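User: Can you model how CU-O-CU linkage sits in this protein?
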Amino acid sequence: VSLLPALNARGASAAPAPGGAADAAVPLFAVEMPLVPVLAPVSTADGVDTYEMTMRTQAKEILPGVRTELRTFNGQFPGPTIKARRNRPVVIRQRNELDVDVSVHLHGASVPPADDGGPMDVIAPGAERQYTYPNKQPHAPLWYHDHAHHLEAENVYRGLHGSYLLTDDEEEALPLPTDEYDVLIAIRDAHFDTATGALQYQMGDRARTTLLVNGAPYPYFKVAARSYRLRLANHSNQRFLELRLEDDSDMTQIASDGGLLPRPHTTKAVYLTSGERADVVVDFSRYPVGTRLVLKNTGFGAVEDVSQVMRFDVARTAQDNSSVPDVLRKLPPLPQPTAERTVVLSMDEDGRPDPKAYIDGKLYDHARVDAHIRSGASEIWTVTNANTKVPHNFHMHLVQFRVLERQGAAPRPEEEGLKDTVRLMPGETVKLQATFDAYRGEYVYHCHMLDHSAMGMMATMKIG
Ligand code: C2O
Ligand code: CU
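Assistant: Here's the modeled complex, given as structure tokens:
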């Protein structure tokens, strides 16, 4: 049963994505899925991996025959993947050669406030700065993206997003598929002028009906008839994805935002709101060589016309010594909570021309602290989506939290691990627990439908 049901057709005014058809001009399964290159450090001295990136405009052929101007990290779309190891710091020097402010946020990471890439802490055009990531947290499929106040929605949409895969000994000890059988699949939507290739950006646009996978439209990916670890990531501005294999066969979800789940979750559907990640293991040895298998999207914003994402082409046989253990990870016990608070998300519905979005009835104001948190506290947050038509999700900086309850019941199996972003369908309430024992200072929390955070649905917490 779909978790994201009737909204497909209903079309709440401020809701994401299309009521329309996919761009007819964009052919399906015509290009091979690019593998996102891993960036090489410029130095590995003193136990620190140092990287350099330049943010600049770059035109690329995404749709056949036309070029699309993008805002990129290093001229790449999506940005290069960073591979990091627990307890080995990473330094990234970011140079802004764009003509807009940017702030580079490492989503899901535990970092000091000065390195968090918050909304007001921007790099002006022509300037550069250095971010230091201590990587003290456990393994997790993190990602980085722009976060400049009021610009983040458009900047990310135009290409400023990439992956940052943090691993550790615990994860590497497992017999999961590795190397070429461990593949990043970053999905996002876009609205092109198909005649010129230009990316169209408008807040709340419902016509982002082209899906890109690792930057390519509806690609095919040649796989061997064996198990793969697919690192699914939703880098869309607003779109909610519900991913299924076309024959409705099982996938094994093994990880979410904050890394491995306690145990594998066998499922026909993977749910990813904007900003969420999920790793699945798919065993292609079920299929004879020659099989072509579409990955479908039956989720929010996906009417039939955007129901296809990519295609797996089973092209050869291969050896497979990988397996998925019954126990993937032992999560530390939850500490005794020391405080509780509520958070209410809402936005103007019903087609207002300039809708605003709120947390606890207030628009984001960077000069205001909305939540004072004691350092070391472990808090229960009860987060409610007060809208009746518009979905939201909820993301906190600095922490990986645990979902305690969804709608008064136990969380779904894929929510039993560590999370940094959680889905909130209209009217839903989620209880989560977060522990603030890593750093002191100010961080934001917000809806990760980026058009909504840019409309004001963001607030500040201060730990200390
Ligand atoms: Cu992925 Cu505050 O963001
Ligand atoms: Cu929202």
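A couple of observations from the model: Residues 392, 447, 449, 452, 457 surround copper (II) ion (ligand 2) (CB under 6 Å). Residues 359 and 390 are 14 Å apart (CA to CA).
User: Helpful, thanks.
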